[in-house]
Task: structure prediction
Amino acid sequence: MVETNFLAQYAPPVHGAAAHLFWVRGESLVTQRFDAAKLRLEGDVVPVADVVGTGALSFAHFSVSNTGVLMYGTGVLGKRQMEWRDRKGIVLGTEGQAGVYYSPRISPDGSAVALSRVHQSNSDMWLYEFGRRVMTRLTVDPGFDNYPVWSPDGRRLAFSAARGAARNLHLTHIGGGLRNEQITESPHSQFPTDWSRDGRYLLYTEAHPKTSSDIWLLSFQEDTGKPKTEPFLATQFDEMNARFSPDGRWIVYSSTECGAYEVYVQPFPAGGKKWLVSNQRGSQPIWRGERELLYVAADGRLMTVDVTPAAGGLSFSIPHELFRAPVRLGVPYYDYQVTADGQRFFILAPGAGVVSAILCKRRSG
Result:
Protein backbone atom coordinates (compact mmCIF):
# COMPACT_ATOMS: atom_id res chain seq x y z
CA MET A 1 0.00 0.00 0.00
CA VAL A 2 2.85 2.38 0.93
CA GLU A 3 6.63 1.93 0.71
CA THR A 4 8.35 2.60 4.03
CA ASN A 5 11.00 1.07 6.27
CA PHE A 6 8.98 1.92 9.38
CA LEU A 7 5.61 1.05 10.84
CA ALA A 8 2.70 3.12 9.55
CA GLN A 9 -0.18 4.19 11.82
CA TYR A 10 -3.90 4.44 11.15
CA ALA A 11 -5.74 7.50 12.54
CA PRO A 12 -9.54 7.09 12.79
CA PRO A 13 -11.98 9.88 11.86
CA VAL A 14 -12.21 12.56 14.56
CA HIS A 15 -13.26 16.23 14.90
CA GLY A 16 -14.48 16.33 11.33
CA ALA A 17 -11.20 14.95 9.97
CA ALA A 18 -11.35 11.90 7.74
CA ALA A 19 -9.44 8.73 8.57
CA HIS A 20 -5.77 9.00 7.60
CA LEU A 21 -2.70 6.84 7.32
CA PHE A 22 0.59 8.28 8.64
CA TRP A 23 4.01 6.95 7.64
CA VAL A 24 7.63 7.97 7.08
CA ARG A 25 8.82 8.49 3.51
CA GLY A 26 12.54 9.10 3.33
CA GLU A 27 13.08 11.24 6.44
CA SER A 28 9.69 13.00 6.28
CA LEU A 29 6.42 12.25 8.05
CA VAL A 30 3.54 12.23 5.57
CA THR A 31 -0.17 11.42 5.64
CA GLN A 32 -2.98 10.55 3.23
CA ARG A 33 -6.72 10.00 3.54
CA PHE A 34 -7.64 6.34 4.02
CA ASP A 35 -10.93 4.59 3.32
CA ALA A 36 -11.03 1.79 5.90
CA ALA A 37 -14.08 0.14 4.33
CA LYS A 38 -12.46 -0.15 0.91
CA LEU A 39 -8.90 -0.46 2.24
CA ARG A 40 -7.51 2.16 -0.12
CA LEU A 41 -5.78 5.51 -0.01
CA GLU A 42 -7.48 8.58 -1.43
CA GLY A 43 -6.39 12.07 -2.39
CA ASP A 44 -2.88 13.46 -2.29
CA VAL A 45 0.00 12.67 0.02
CA VAL A 46 0.37 15.59 2.46
CA PRO A 47 3.70 16.35 4.18
CA VAL A 48 3.49 16.75 7.97
CA ALA A 49 7.12 17.22 9.02
CA ASP A 50 10.29 17.52 6.93
CA VAL A 51 12.37 15.44 9.32
CA VAL A 52 11.06 12.93 11.86
CA GLY A 53 13.21 10.94 14.25
CA THR A 54 13.79 7.26 13.54
CA GLY A 55 15.45 4.41 15.35
CA ALA A 56 15.63 0.71 14.66
CA LEU A 57 13.28 -2.27 14.85
CA SER A 58 11.04 -0.51 12.26
CA PHE A 59 9.92 2.25 14.64
CA ALA A 60 9.72 5.95 13.82
CA HIS A 61 9.13 8.58 16.48
CA PHE A 62 5.52 9.59 15.96
CA SER A 63 2.14 8.63 17.37
CA VAL A 64 -1.46 9.61 16.65
CA SER A 65 -4.12 9.39 19.37
CA ASN A 66 -7.78 8.49 18.86
CA THR A 67 -8.65 12.02 19.98
CA GLY A 68 -6.81 13.60 17.06
CA VAL A 69 -3.53 14.60 18.75
CA LEU A 70 -0.33 13.95 16.79
CA MET A 71 3.06 13.78 18.52
CA TYR A 72 6.35 13.39 16.71
CA GLY A 73 10.04 13.79 17.44
CA THR A 74 12.46 15.72 15.25
CA GLY A 75 15.75 14.27 16.46
CA VAL A 76 17.45 10.89 16.54
CA LEU A 77 16.71 8.71 19.52
CA GLY A 78 18.99 5.91 20.61
CA LYS A 79 22.37 7.23 19.47
CA ARG A 80 25.32 5.25 20.81
CA GLN A 81 29.02 6.13 21.01
CA MET A 82 31.61 3.46 20.26
CA GLU A 83 34.08 3.46 23.14
CA TRP A 84 36.78 1.37 24.80
CA ARG A 85 36.86 0.61 28.55
CA ASP A 86 39.24 -1.32 30.76
CA ARG A 87 38.31 -4.03 33.26
CA LYS A 88 37.44 -1.37 35.84
CA GLY A 89 35.03 0.38 33.47
CA ILE A 90 37.28 3.40 32.91
CA VAL A 91 36.86 4.92 29.44
CA LEU A 92 40.10 4.57 27.45
CA GLY A 93 38.93 6.30 24.26
CA THR A 94 36.23 6.51 21.62
CA GLU A 95 35.84 5.46 17.99
CA GLY A 96 34.07 7.38 15.23
CA GLN A 97 30.96 9.48 15.67
CA ALA A 98 27.85 8.70 17.67
CA GLY A 99 25.12 6.98 15.69
CA VAL A 100 22.26 4.51 15.91
CA TYR A 101 24.29 1.30 16.24
CA TYR A 102 23.38 -2.25 17.26
CA SER A 103 25.04 -5.65 17.74
CA PRO A 104 28.80 -5.01 17.40
CA ARG A 105 31.04 -7.98 16.64
CA ILE A 106 34.84 -7.62 16.61
CA SER A 107 36.61 -9.39 13.74
CA PRO A 108 38.73 -12.51 14.49
CA ASP A 109 41.97 -10.55 13.97
CA GLY A 110 40.74 -7.63 16.11
CA SER A 111 41.23 -5.03 13.37
CA ALA A 112 37.59 -4.07 12.80
CA VAL A 113 34.06 -4.30 14.15
CA ALA A 114 30.94 -5.24 12.19
CA LEU A 115 27.66 -3.73 13.38
CA SER A 116 24.20 -2.67 12.34
CA ARG A 117 23.85 1.03 11.63
CA VAL A 118 20.67 3.00 11.00
CA HIS A 119 21.52 5.54 8.30
CA GLN A 120 19.04 7.59 6.25
CA SER A 121 16.10 5.64 7.70
CA ASN A 122 17.57 2.27 6.73
CA SER A 123 19.36 -0.34 8.83
CA ASP A 124 22.28 -2.10 7.13
CA MET A 125 25.49 -3.91 7.97
CA TRP A 126 28.59 -1.71 8.25
CA LEU A 127 32.28 -2.32 8.94
CA TYR A 128 34.36 0.05 11.09
CA GLU A 129 38.16 -0.31 10.81
CA PHE A 130 40.00 0.66 14.00
CA GLY A 131 43.33 1.46 12.33
CA ARG A 132 42.00 3.72 9.56
CA ARG A 133 38.97 4.91 11.57
CA VAL A 134 36.67 4.57 8.56
CA MET A 135 33.24 2.98 8.22
CA THR A 136 32.27 1.01 5.10
CA ARG A 137 28.80 -0.12 4.12
CA LEU A 138 28.33 -3.88 3.58
CA THR A 139 24.63 -4.10 2.64
CA VAL A 140 22.22 -1.68 1.02
CA ASP A 141 18.93 -3.55 0.92
CA PRO A 142 15.75 -2.07 2.42
CA GLY A 143 14.66 -3.55 5.71
CA PHE A 144 16.41 -4.26 8.98
CA ASP A 145 19.81 -5.99 8.71
CA ASN A 146 21.31 -6.93 12.07
CA TYR A 147 23.14 -9.51 14.23
CA PRO A 148 26.47 -9.88 12.39
CA VAL A 149 28.56 -12.99 13.06
CA TRP A 150 32.08 -13.45 11.64
CA SER A 151 33.31 -16.59 9.96
CA PRO A 152 36.46 -17.84 11.73
CA ASP A 153 38.68 -16.78 8.79
CA GLY A 154 37.24 -13.24 8.83
CA ARG A 155 36.23 -13.38 5.17
CA ARG A 156 32.43 -13.62 5.58
CA LEU A 157 29.65 -12.31 7.78
CA ALA A 158 26.40 -14.06 8.60
CA PHE A 159 23.54 -11.74 9.52
CA SER A 160 19.78 -11.52 9.82
CA ALA A 161 17.82 -9.72 7.10
CA ALA A 162 14.20 -9.31 6.09
CA ARG A 163 13.90 -9.80 2.35
CA GLY A 164 10.38 -11.14 2.73
CA ALA A 165 7.88 -11.71 5.53
CA ALA A 166 10.45 -13.05 8.03
CA ARG A 167 14.07 -12.33 8.87
CA ASN A 168 16.26 -15.17 7.64
CA LEU A 169 20.00 -15.84 7.55
CA HIS A 170 22.22 -14.24 4.91
CA LEU A 171 25.92 -14.18 4.08
CA THR A 172 28.07 -11.37 2.74
CA HIS A 173 31.72 -11.52 1.69
CA ILE A 174 34.06 -8.89 3.12
CA GLY A 175 35.48 -6.90 0.23
CA GLY A 176 33.03 -8.50 -2.17
CA GLY A 177 30.84 -5.46 -2.74
CA LEU A 178 27.25 -5.06 -1.59
CA ARG A 179 26.07 -8.49 -2.73
CA ASN A 180 24.78 -11.03 -0.23
CA GLU A 181 23.13 -14.44 -0.38
CA GLN A 182 20.26 -15.90 1.59
CA ILE A 183 21.16 -19.27 3.14
CA THR A 184 17.93 -20.18 4.98
CA GLU A 185 14.25 -19.85 4.19
CA SER A 186 11.77 -20.03 7.05
CA PRO A 187 8.45 -18.37 7.93
CA HIS A 188 9.97 -17.71 11.37
CA SER A 189 12.49 -14.95 12.08
CA GLN A 190 16.08 -16.10 12.58
CA PHE A 191 19.10 -14.35 14.15
CA PRO A 192 22.67 -15.74 13.97
CA THR A 193 24.60 -15.76 17.25
CA ASP A 194 27.94 -17.55 16.66
CA TRP A 195 30.13 -19.42 14.17
CA SER A 196 32.24 -22.37 15.36
CA ARG A 197 36.04 -22.03 15.16
CA ASP A 198 36.28 -24.95 12.71
CA GLY A 199 33.79 -23.21 10.38
CA ARG A 200 31.38 -26.14 10.33
CA TYR A 201 28.49 -24.80 12.41
CA LEU A 202 26.46 -21.64 12.78
CA LEU A 203 24.31 -21.10 15.87
CA TYR A 204 21.18 -19.01 15.52
CA THR A 205 17.96 -18.10 17.32
CA GLU A 206 14.63 -18.87 15.69
CA ALA A 207 11.41 -17.29 16.96
CA HIS A 208 8.57 -19.82 16.86
CA PRO A 209 4.92 -19.06 17.78
CA LYS A 210 4.60 -22.28 19.82
CA THR A 211 8.02 -22.63 21.45
CA SER A 212 9.08 -18.97 21.62
CA SER A 213 12.80 -18.33 20.95
CA ASP A 214 14.81 -21.49 20.30
CA ILE A 215 18.45 -22.30 19.60
CA TRP A 216 19.05 -23.83 16.17
CA LEU A 217 22.13 -25.19 14.48
CA LEU A 218 23.12 -24.76 10.83
CA SER A 219 25.82 -27.08 9.51
CA PHE A 220 27.64 -26.45 6.25
CA GLN A 221 27.57 -29.65 4.17
CA GLU A 222 30.75 -30.13 2.12
CA ASP A 223 29.25 -32.90 -0.02
CA THR A 224 26.12 -31.04 -1.14
CA GLY A 225 27.14 -27.44 -0.55
CA LYS A 226 23.74 -26.83 1.01
CA PRO A 227 23.35 -25.95 4.69
CA LYS A 228 21.44 -28.29 6.98
CA THR A 229 19.40 -26.86 9.86
CA GLU A 230 18.13 -28.56 13.01
CA PRO A 231 17.00 -27.48 16.49
CA PHE A 232 19.59 -27.72 19.28
CA LEU A 233 17.42 -26.53 22.16
CA ALA A 234 13.69 -25.91 21.73
CA THR A 235 11.41 -25.75 24.79
CA GLN A 236 8.44 -23.68 25.91
CA PHE A 237 10.93 -21.16 27.35
CA ASP A 238 13.04 -18.49 25.65
CA GLU A 239 16.54 -19.63 24.68
CA MET A 240 18.89 -17.24 22.91
CA ASN A 241 22.39 -15.66 22.88
CA ALA A 242 24.06 -19.03 22.18
CA ARG A 243 27.87 -18.98 21.83
CA PHE A 244 30.43 -21.71 21.21
CA SER A 245 33.36 -22.12 23.57
CA PRO A 246 36.70 -21.63 21.76
CA ASP A 247 37.33 -25.41 21.68
CA GLY A 248 33.80 -26.03 20.37
CA ARG A 249 32.91 -28.45 23.19
CA TRP A 250 30.44 -26.22 25.04
CA ILE A 251 27.63 -23.77 24.33
CA VAL A 252 26.68 -20.90 26.63
CA TYR A 253 23.22 -19.35 26.28
CA SER A 254 20.44 -17.44 28.05
CA SER A 255 17.14 -19.05 29.03
CA THR A 256 13.97 -18.13 30.94
CA GLU A 257 13.35 -21.63 32.29
CA CYS A 258 13.67 -20.30 35.87
CA GLY A 259 11.20 -17.47 35.17
CA ALA A 260 13.76 -14.82 34.17
CA TYR A 261 16.83 -14.84 31.95
CA GLU A 262 19.77 -16.76 33.40
CA VAL A 263 23.01 -18.00 31.81
CA TYR A 264 23.56 -21.72 31.25
CA VAL A 265 26.22 -23.96 29.70
CA GLN A 266 25.60 -27.25 27.87
CA PRO A 267 28.00 -29.67 26.17
CA PHE A 268 28.14 -29.72 22.38
CA PRO A 269 27.09 -31.57 20.34
CA ALA A 270 25.51 -33.92 22.87
CA GLY A 271 23.47 -31.33 24.77
CA GLY A 272 21.38 -32.63 27.65
CA LYS A 273 23.20 -31.90 30.93
CA LYS A 274 23.50 -28.22 31.79
CA TRP A 275 25.01 -25.92 34.40
CA LEU A 276 23.55 -22.68 35.75
CA VAL A 277 26.27 -20.03 35.59
CA SER A 278 24.61 -16.76 36.62
CA ASN A 279 22.88 -15.86 39.86
CA GLN A 280 20.13 -13.25 40.17
CA ARG A 281 19.56 -13.13 36.40
CA GLY A 282 21.88 -12.71 33.44
CA SER A 283 22.00 -12.45 29.66
CA GLN A 284 24.33 -11.58 26.75
CA PRO A 285 27.03 -14.16 27.66
CA ILE A 286 30.45 -14.21 25.97
CA TRP A 287 33.33 -16.67 26.27
CA ARG A 288 36.68 -14.96 26.86
CA GLY A 289 39.03 -17.80 26.10
CA GLU A 290 38.16 -21.13 27.70
CA ARG A 291 38.66 -20.03 31.32
CA GLU A 292 36.35 -17.00 31.63
CA LEU A 293 32.69 -16.26 30.95
CA LEU A 294 31.22 -12.77 30.86
CA TYR A 295 27.56 -11.75 31.01
CA VAL A 296 25.34 -8.78 31.83
CA ALA A 297 23.28 -8.92 35.04
CA ALA A 298 19.71 -7.64 35.12
CA ASP A 299 20.83 -4.35 36.70
CA GLY A 300 23.50 -3.69 34.06
CA ARG A 301 26.56 -4.97 35.91
CA LEU A 302 29.12 -6.73 33.71
CA MET A 303 29.93 -9.98 35.49
CA THR A 304 32.87 -12.36 35.21
CA VAL A 305 32.94 -16.08 36.02
CA ASP A 306 36.03 -18.31 36.19
CA VAL A 307 35.70 -21.60 34.31
CA THR A 308 37.79 -24.67 35.17
CA PRO A 309 37.67 -28.27 33.93
CA ALA A 310 36.09 -30.70 36.37
CA ALA A 311 35.12 -34.34 36.54
CA GLY A 312 32.13 -34.83 34.28
CA GLY A 313 32.21 -31.31 32.83
CA LEU A 314 33.09 -27.82 34.00
CA SER A 315 33.22 -25.93 37.28
CA PHE A 316 32.16 -22.28 37.62
CA SER A 317 33.14 -19.71 40.23
CA ILE A 318 30.76 -17.33 41.96
CA PRO A 319 30.07 -14.42 39.56
CA HIS A 320 31.93 -11.19 40.37
CA GLU A 321 31.22 -7.68 39.13
CA LEU A 322 33.70 -5.96 36.84
CA PHE A 323 31.83 -2.68 36.37
CA ARG A 324 28.40 -1.30 35.62
CA ALA A 325 28.10 -1.30 31.83
CA PRO A 326 26.00 1.33 30.02
CA VAL A 327 24.32 -1.24 27.79
CA ARG A 328 20.71 -1.84 26.79
CA LEU A 329 19.06 -4.50 28.93
CA GLY A 330 16.45 -7.11 28.11
CA VAL A 331 17.25 -7.24 24.39
CA PRO A 332 18.53 -10.13 22.24
CA TYR A 333 21.41 -8.17 20.74
CA TYR A 334 24.65 -7.16 22.45
CA ASP A 335 26.08 -3.71 23.17
CA TYR A 336 29.54 -4.93 24.18
CA GLN A 337 32.47 -7.04 23.02
CA VAL A 338 35.78 -8.02 24.63
CA THR A 339 39.26 -8.26 23.15
CA ALA A 340 41.04 -11.62 22.98
CA ASP A 341 43.26 -10.80 25.98
CA GLY A 342 40.25 -9.74 28.06
CA GLN A 343 41.74 -6.36 28.97
CA ARG A 344 39.57 -4.04 26.87
CA PHE A 345 35.85 -3.85 26.29
CA PHE A 346 34.24 -2.34 23.20
CA ILE A 347 30.92 -0.82 24.26
CA LEU A 348 28.09 1.01 22.51
CA ALA A 349 27.47 3.60 25.22
CA PRO A 350 24.62 6.14 25.18
CA GLY A 351 25.68 9.07 23.01
CA ALA A 352 24.48 12.61 22.49
CA GLY A 353 21.16 12.98 20.79
CA VAL A 354 18.25 15.25 21.62
CA VAL A 355 14.70 14.56 20.57
CA SER A 356 12.34 17.54 20.35
CA ALA A 357 8.76 16.43 20.88
CA ILE A 358 6.04 18.37 19.03
CA LEU A 359 2.32 18.14 19.70
CA CYS A 360 -0.30 19.20 17.20
CA LYS A 361 -4.03 18.75 16.56
CA ARG A 362 -5.40 17.17 13.43
CA ARG A 363 -7.56 19.46 11.34
CA SER A 364 -10.59 18.57 9.27
CA GLY A 365 -9.88 17.35 5.77
User: Anything to note?
Assistant: The chain has a mean pLDDT of 88.
